[in-house]
Amino acid sequence: VGFSATSELALQNSTKEPINQLILFLNPGLTITSIECEQKQLSFQREHQVVIIDYCLQPNEKVSLLMHYEGDIDENICYLDIPAKAFYNTKNNNRGIQYHGRQFSFCSKDYTLLYPECFWYPVAVPPVNLRSPLEYQMDFTVYNLSVKNIEGKIILSQGQKDEGNIFTSFRSSQALPGISLCIGDYLRKSILVDSMPIEFY
User: Fold this and answer.
1) Strand-pair partners of 145
2) How distant, in Å, are the alpha carbons of 49, 81, 91, 132, 156 from that of 114?
3) Which residues, including other chains, have CB under 8 Å from residue 24's CB and lie 6 or more apart?
4) What is the structure's pLDDT at 127?
5) pLDDT beyond 60 at 199
6) Distances (CA, A) of 183 to 49, 67, 123, 186
7) What does the alpha-carbon distance between residue 63 and residue 24 come to, in Å, rounded to a whole number?
8) pLDDT (0 to 100) of residue 101
9) CA dihedral of 116, 120, 122, 126, whole degrees rounded to 10
């Protein structure tokens, strides 16, 4: 079971030179159906996880893009900085706890789990620097997420939650390095500690 999504991206050229092409990153298993700017279709090229958009962004210029995409998550893109010997180890982890496999995303009718590392939404900076894994760039972004409700399922993500009749929305109050999405049949428990609500699922 795959999924379809629309991302609205607010981009700005903070340099003093024009940017002749916009480069974004998206999971290679997801197919981009269109990229729009002010209701006009933009041409783009796709090289696996790299999306090259034909748009010139002038210094300090801001632009809003709409990207429509759908498909299935390709997990081979996740955690490319982990050596193959450790990645495919099926015995145990470094704490000696039994190893139960390595799956980085779930997208089914019963359960959904998507981490930022699987590129389930377009980003401007890849999460892994393959030339130097210890030198990676953090791209702090203000995220707003809306997910269509599924009967009997609880939807979880970062940010202030707003549950509507059709969509559940999340609005982040501060810039984050990434967001996750979790949908499942959960039992919710809540408690108030010194005026701060805490929820357990």
Assistant:
1) 170
2) 16, 19, 25, 25, 11
3) 9, 50, 51, 53, 67, 122, 123, 124
4) 67
5) yes
6) 25, 23, 22, 9
7) 14
8) 58
9) 40
Instruction: Report pLDDT for 102.
Output: 65
Continuous H helices in the chain = 84-87
* Residue that is written with structure tokens 């974004």 in the block: 24
Cα 18 from Cα 107, distance rounded (Å)? 39
On whether the CB atoms of residues 53 and 22 are closer than 8 A, the answer is: yes
Task: For residue range 161-196, list pLDDT tens digits in order.
Answer: 999 999 999 999 899 999 999 999 999 899 999 988
Three-class secondary structure assignment of 103-160: CCEEECCCCEEECHHHCCCCECCCCCCCCCCCCCCCCCECCEEEEECCCCCEEECCCE
Give the model's pLDDT for residue 183.
94
* CA 161 vs CA 88, 110, 167: distances in Å: 37, 21, 11
Cβ atoms < 10 Å from Cβ of 41: 9
The maximal CA–CA distance of the chain, rounded, in angstroms, is 55
> In the Cβ-directed half-sphere of 160, how many Cα atoms lie within 13 Å?
6
Exposed e or buried b per residue across 171-185, where buried means at least 16 C-beta atoms within 10 angstroms of its C-beta: ebeeebebbebbbbe
From the list 159, 200, 154, the residue with the least C-alpha distance to 180 is 159
- Tell the residue number behind the tokens 């982990």, with chain if given: 82
Query: Would the pLDDT of 92 be above 60?
Result: no
User: At which residue do the structure tokens 């704490």 appear?
Assistant: 95
Q: How many CB atoms lie within 10 A of CB 110?
A: 10
